[in-house]
């Protein structure tokens, strides 16, 4: 009968510890069936599942491990594993795996407790918990600090939609973001990220800023709010708002453009994506004038938006060409992916309004960013507490891996 033993080693981390332990095991020609190591605040936790060769006895091996660990100043624990338990572990190979990503300004025990309780209720096991965010100093942190913990889960929830709803409810209660997604090959190999522009890539709604310059701010902002909530048809509402801008001087567009404020984390996110070779796009129900400005500033690959008609230096109140609404955004997303030879499962779409829902649902990862309630409830994922660079956490990137 084969001997399988789980060896757990813990204590103060030091250079050469793992090398010394495995070097000693190597003398007995031990097979390593599984291995995992983590270091938290200079404290090591090392686990190895080992198979003792048939020609060897385990007693002298374990004695040598204990002696080696004693010299290194660490603790050791041995647990025998029967073959049936090992077989069940092997059979779990290929089973579905899920990721929960917790994003907040700071991580608390209450948040971890809420997440892990939902995991238990859905009969899943936590394989690994990893901190993706950088180390947080105790003093000098700003209101824009970032914290992220990723939970790797094994198993299949009985009702994934209900689990997602439970996590959404916990996120609302705790004022954090909780992303729940299957851990697939596509999650780690996205190649295209498409953004809405207004209130997503930039802080403001451009049409509202233009309306202020035209003296019709209150009229237009009211229509905008209802359109983003999905209460009004987007095309009709856009036409009525642009009509109110008739006569506005073209110079006003330049002034509004100069004052555009990028959303928190936008430059870091797009800079990282570009460095890693991602393609990026703006798919906006706003206006090409401002999209092109952002394209130049951020090195965006594609821009599709609506063209304002300008005659003799003034807006006519009309839009040239077909309107980029929700359905058109989804079509453009598919067209760009096809042109770049990218599967839709490898596409991330980000938006905040009801007119973004079609493209969010078509993308492999659809993210409602600081979105209206109707959008947040319908999208696959949502980020409300952090900036746009929080998207990198959903993709599995650590702070030290970003630019």
Quaternary structure: single chain
CATH topology (fold) name of the largest domain: Rossmann fold
- What is the H-and-E element order? EHEEHEHEHEEHEEHHHHHEHEEHEHEHEH
- How many domain regions? 3
Uncertain regions spanning at least 5 consecutive residues = none
Q: What distance separates the N and C termini?
A: 52 Å
Shape: elongated
Number of helices: 15
Top CATH class of the largest domain: Alpha Beta
How can the largest sheet be summarized? 7 strands, mixed
Strand order of the main beta sheet, please?
12-11-10-9-13-14-15
Instruction: Determine the mean pLDDT.
Output: 93
Number of strands: 15
Describe the 3D structure.
With 403 residues, the protein is α/β, with parallel strands linked by helices. It has three domains: 3-91, Alpha-Beta Plaits (2-Layer Sandwich); 97-183, Alpha-Beta Plaits (2-Layer Sandwich); 192-401, HAD superfamily/HAD-like (Rossmann fold, 3-Layer(aba) Sandwich), CATH 3.40.50. The chain is built from 15 helices and 15 strands. It has helices at 17-26, 58-72, 83-91, 109-121, 160-174, 206-214, 217-228, 234-243, 251-258, 266-275, 288-298, 326-339, 357-362, 373-378, 391-394; strands at 3-12, 31-40, 43-52, 75-81, 97-104, 125-131, 147-154, 177-182, 192-195, 279-287, 302-311, 314-320, 347-351, 365-369, 381-383. A seven-stranded mixed β-sheet has the order 12-11-10-9-13-14-15, sandwiched between helices. Helix 4 runs antiparallel to helix 5. The longest helix is centred in the first third of the chain and has 15 residues, at 58-72. The protein is elongated, with a radius of gyration of 27 Å. The model has no long low-confidence stretch (mean pLDDT 93).
